[in-house]
Amino acid sequence: MTGYRYIVVFFLLSMFPCISYAQETVQVITGTYNRTFRYSTGDIIKINAEKARITITGSEKEEIIVTTKLISKARTVEIAKSELSYHQYTIEKNKDVIDIENRIVLPKHVKEFQSVLFVEIQISIPTEMELQVSNNYGNTKIENKNGKTHVNSGFGDIFLVNVGGELKLKSYYGDLKTDGLAGHSVLDLVLTPAEISGASGFINLKSSLGDIVIDNPGRLRALNIESSKSDVTMVYGREQEFRYFLQADFGELVIPQSFGVAPRDEITNRLIWTYGDPDKPEINIKANFGNIILNVE
Q1: The predicted structure's pLDDT at residue 7
Q2: Based on CB atoms within 10 Å of each CB, which residue in 69, 74, 110, 208 is the most buried?
Q3: pLDDT (average), residues 111-130
Q4: Which residues, at least 6 apart from 167, have a Cβ–Cβ distance to it below 8 Å?
């Protein structure tokens, strides 16, 4: 019996070996820069960055406050310190333009990065100040902003909260989420699913390979959507009334039964549906290889 017990114990130990994990620490080095500029009517702020987490907030103050953190994460302090210099960050004002730029550049004599590099930029600007943002491989958030706003984003998410005025936005490969969008908005989206909540004003939207959800539109004046290989869903309350022109090529129109049925052209495989009084705000949606869905709550 003793020998049997030894065999069983050995078998159990072989089934459940003792496993140990080596925990590798990460060293973080940060360089922080603060700048403040006095605002004059007509000033413009331009941001050109990569691997940046950008947050821009509108304020009633007549000044521009910029806080920038250049961040390097690596296995050792020495590597983190050394590669922090790979950030090429500049901020300057030339006449009426404030330029902020950050690039991450690998020196020619270095084969590869040994650290994780990114930048955090927090900016407070006057609400009506013109803003131009270009950000690749990073997220951009803008809130409480009017006036002119231009956003160009690649491989990053965009968050807009209470943004009005004149907005022009381009996005390639990311997510777009907005709440309280107002004014005149022109959105050009590729591989960018979008959730647009509580929108008002005028919206022109082009989308390719990214589904669109329009949720609870507020005082929407006009909505024009052209989509390709994307589903478009609009969710709103029964008390809201619109004038619709919906067209789906090689897709489906899903509308409440009380609104009727959209006839299909068997030759072109096209569905067209119009509904509503001419004096109501217009909803024009054209979808190619995608569905249009109306969900009335």
Answers
A1: 37
A2: 74
A3: 96
A4: 149, 150, 151, 160, 181, 183, 184, 185, 186, 187
254 and 231 housed in the same domain:
yes
The rounded mean pLDDT for the chain is 90
Q: Among residues 244, 245, 241, 262, which one has the least CA distance to residue 253?
A: 262
The verdict on residue 10 lying in a domain is no
User: Which amino acid would we find at residue 133?
Assistant: V
Residues 58, 61, 64, 69, Cα dihedral to 10°: -70
**How big is the CA angle at 149 (ends 67 and 47), to the nearest 5 degrees?**
40
**Within a domain: residue 104?**
yes
Tokens at 79, concatenated = 């590597």
Q: Which of the 8 DSSP states describes residue 224? A: E
State pLDDT tens for residues 170-203: 999 999 999 999 999 999 999 999 999 999 999 9
pTM > 0.85: yes
β-strand pairing of 63-74 with 116-126: antiparallel
Domain that holds residue 220: 141-297
Alpha-carbon distance of 222 to 200, in angstroms, equals: 8
For the CA atoms of 140, 86, 102, 119, the dihedral, rounded to the nearest 10 degrees, stands at 30
CA distance 127 to 169: 18
86 and 205 assigned to the same domain: no
Say how many domains are in the chain: 2
Please tell me whether residues 93 and 66 are part of one structural domain: yes
